[in-house]
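Lecture 7, part B: from sequences to assemblies.

Below are the input chains for today's worked example.
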Amino acid sequence: MSTFEALRRQLGDAAAAFAGDSVSAILTGMVDDVDRALSEKLEIFPVCHHSPASALAMVRRLREKQPKVIYLELCEDLGPLLTELRNCRLPVALQAFATELDGFPPAWGPLSVVAPITEASAEYQAIAYALETPGVELVLVDRSSDHVFQSHGPEEAADSPEEPPREGAGLHGDAVGIEIGDLRPRFAELEEHLLHHGKVRHWSEWWDQYVEQPLAGADYDTYRQVMVLIGSLFRRLDPGDGDRLARDEDRERHMWTRMREHLAASGADPADCLYVCGAFHAASRVEQFGLDAAAPYEIAPPTGTRWLYGLIPSSHSAIETQFGLAPGSVSIAAATWSKAVGRNGLTPFQLAGQKGTRKRAAKLPPPAPPAPPSDRLSGYLSAPPPLDGLDEEELRGWCVDIVRLARRNGYLASTADAIAVFETSILLAAMRNRPRPTPYDFQDAAVTCIEKDVVPGRRDVRRLCEILLGGDRVGTVGYDALPPLARDVFDRLRPLGVDLEKRTIQRALLDLNADPDLAACSNLLWMLRYLLPADAVRPIMGERRLGERSIQESWDVAIGRHQRSIIELGYEGVTVEQVLEQRLRASVWDQKATAATALAAVEDAILYLGSRRFADELGARAVELLAAERTVDDAPEVLRRIRRLLAYFRANEPELPAWCESFVTAGYAHYCTLLPTAFVDDDTGVRQVGAMLGFLFTMESLAMALGCDRAQLEIAVQQSHPESPAKVALLWAARNQLGLLPLAELRARCDELLANPLVVPSFPLYVTGFVQAMELAPGLSGFVVEVVSKAFGRLPDRVLLPWLPKLVTTLRAQAGELMPVLVREAGRTYPGSLPALDAWTPPWERRAAAPRPKASASAAGPVTELLVAHPAACDAVAELLGCDGQWQAPQPSAHGAAEVLLAGHPETAAAVAVLLA
Amino acid sequence: MTDLLRAPAEVKYAEELDWLESIDDGAKPFSWRLSPKMVRLFVLGSEPSDGLDREIPQKWFGDRSFVERSIVTLASDRGLLLIGDPGTGKSWLAELLAAAICRNSTLVVQGTAGTTEDHIKYSWNVSMVIAKGQSRESLIPSPIMTAMEQGVVGRFEELTRSTSDVQDALISILSEKYVSIPELDDDNIVFAKPGFSIIATANSRDRGVNDLSSALKRRFNFVRIPVVTSKRSEAEIVRFRTEELLRRHRIELDVPPTLLDILLQSFADLRAAAASAASDDEKLESALSTAEQIGVLEDAILHSHFFGDRTLRAGTLAGSLVGSLARRSPEDLAILNKYWHGVVEPRSKKDGGDWQDFLEGGREAIATLS
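Predicted structure of the full complex, as structure tokens:
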């Protein structure tokens, strides 16, 4: 007769009395599952994630049984990382990371799997025991990271709930989370039902009240039976959406197959082994379940994807966010664990050298003999959960602390509030049938008594309670467990004298003149600035631009906070330089790469790597990309970057690199070809056309020197027939620049436009075109100031006012290029003082009103005197050119007054002459 | 059934309260008529797992923890301030709590700009003062003072609508728990009996009109009642309140579930539109609260009953909805017109059924008002 026969009968009778056959099948099936799991030859230890009760039961069981082999439900490929846990402060996450995908769609990349490990977990106890006890083997048996993605894509795998981000919650990035012992109802109605009848708000609270607390001090049999029972309940009440259960069953088949393989290979005695898995899997009904099962299962081979492994820091809030747990629940579990360890006088297992832990585990007692299981479920199911009594001291401490914390966060809380919170906690707990207020009751009471209509600071009382009851704990990965790249960074930044493991922002000052050795650190910081998130390293003073060098730099360094980023960088290469080179190379060979991105990569290569060879390689790619481009969207960016690079090479190199020359010639031909289309294409903006013309005109001399023909540009301009006013203005400017349209005619055309009331509304568009034209013809800036002034002066308000914001935004967007020229020209044109404004006439009007007398060809002066004295050379040149000219008599000097003055007072001039002699 | 237009909760549920009191064996704070658990049961209704002989209907719909927090606050030394948007059921919860705790929910002070300290403390019967002089007989106690004398719960509606000096009069009442009457030589202090507490309500949209002083805030526990966003809870509330209204008006009329769905869906759509509106002109003036939905339904029911064929139809509901929500012309009408043609019309084509009738009724109502 089975151990659970009596219970089975009792449940069957109850189901028959209150419900139908289906319920009866579920209830007796659950008992069957428990029976089956307990009678399995290989001892199954069911766990739930982040459950102090599981961890406590694990400590007790490991001490009693002292198994020789532990099978753990964790990705089998993460095994080698476990020893590195010694160098870390928990919580940290084991990570498998892949960027080079083979066998998965490229769009999935990069793939990342994380398995967070906290101290208050059964798996950590098992790991610590296995690694610290000689002769104990730890075997990870769950599917590898590769298999995780074989069965479902990254989107499907990362089913973390959408919640507002909290502090420290983003430590796992967008990785897929793997946790041991996921135990939660799989359909919403069941969870809702349990919460409703349990009179609790969320799952963690229910679990704490109905499972965690009753099991914290329970014996091993009770613990095991109850956990399998709960696993079985959730399994049998699965909504049957297929996919998820099928995945779980695959995992179970995988795990059992692996365990059988290992037992066969090692010859270990199953009585000395322990299988640690989630309670859900303990109640598995797959045909491969059990060591005696003979059903075959073929494990799929891994894909060709190259997986890299490492440890990344984790935090309680990151775990809560990733696995949809209630905020603060992992912290509360950690606090419960510490308290339970102290109260039960247990010595938990710890890895030697583990940071952040107090002491090493004591020696193990001799193992206890195995005892036959007895029915503990009946007792558990028939009585309400035995809860702890009121711990007044603890509650009082919480009340005082929350008031102190609230005050520090801007609340007007006082001792009276502490008393009120204490009283309210007890009253609330009593209403909810609890002799002792749980942390959740306390949280509700604190919110009731302290929270008013507004939250004065950044954190509300609920968040403060979470901090108080354990706070978020953030782990760190120790130096020795870091990948080579991260260690290299730590080593190279050591001269800065900042502790890179600290999670605070630290200021580093680099006086590069006084200590030239720091230049290497500065260089590394700039590279990290490029590769890491924006606030990992942030320059406060100093900048890095082409051709410039900082004398002093000041940096805010927060690498400790961004350990994950730097560790993930370590998966890409061995040094920062290598990663940077790879990234730059990848950016120019990307399918979406453009000439502008390639030029940006060249610039970055020069700035950060200082490698001419590499810059040349990227530059050559830029030429290819430019020639292949069919749009001119990036023309402004291309122009800006190539100008900067040319200026840099001219100033620093004896000659231009070959790729620069090719780029200019290719660009000249390319933009000439595309110019007529760009002028008429509605999708091409005026700024783009302006930049194309800017390239063509400002690079013209270099292009000519390199063998280009100006006729190509002239033809392209002649072929252009734009219709939009702004582009028409640009074309006029281009024609003027080519000498095809004199300035006087251009001015006349503008005046005509302003005089025609039908065209006046579109005049601002012309002005916009002229403003852009400064890019190609800086000499036209005077005319642009004139046009803008005329527009301001003559356009009616209804046209002018709506256009002004557009003009301002255009100028603002291109402030770097257009504003200096425009402001300088405006400064030259307009009077500098207010009184002068009254008498001021615009230069263009002055010209029109009183044309300047033609300059005399026979001006007086030393040059004229020289030529008159020696006319032979001039006559010869004139004859050669075929000019018939007459020598005119020299005019008297224009400086008559000065000569009279000097003749009247020769002393000064004589003294100066003596001095100079 | 009473012959009052709207009976207070303690009268309306008198029989239920009596029964609960008879079976209540829990500890009762002060002079409470029910234990805290029973108060919760009265407000939130019973479940089979409570093992009661009869079913207690749910009367207030919302998170259980709000009710629990409110009850324990009343059992403590502090006043309870229910704060939330209009139409979230604050006053109803206050009334239910007062009725369950002390069987008297009518000791109410309504906070307005014209509320004076006399309304909170006491005033004098002038003719009696002239005739007999100032004495306890000629004193008219305020509802709050009466609550103090009787050791029951007093209510203060719309606390933030009254001016600061009036609010400050509450500070001493909540701290010292007595009111002194300096005009009298003897018997000039009214002490509060155990069980006295205050439930105040405040509208969170009125924040800034007359902000509470820090001293007063300290003496109140705030329980914020959020707007109901769950469609299921909202349906429950509307159904519950409508049934009550029908009973009150003695009307026999069925509210088809499909029409209730249409009403809830329309409000959900209009709320979504209001949330995404860029300016006040693009959203309806109405707060689109649950109370407003009940108002629309009540209007439609009354209209169907008295002017229709005693059957609630989608067209009538649409007419009531337009009539209730179109407060500004042309802004609100334009928004409703846009909603009707942009959302209701496609939906009526897709789903057909009552939506078709709803579309026609709405169009007609908009055309009439335009």
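Note for the exam: Residues 42-150+183-288+303-360 of chain A form one domain. Keep this in mind when comparing with the next example.
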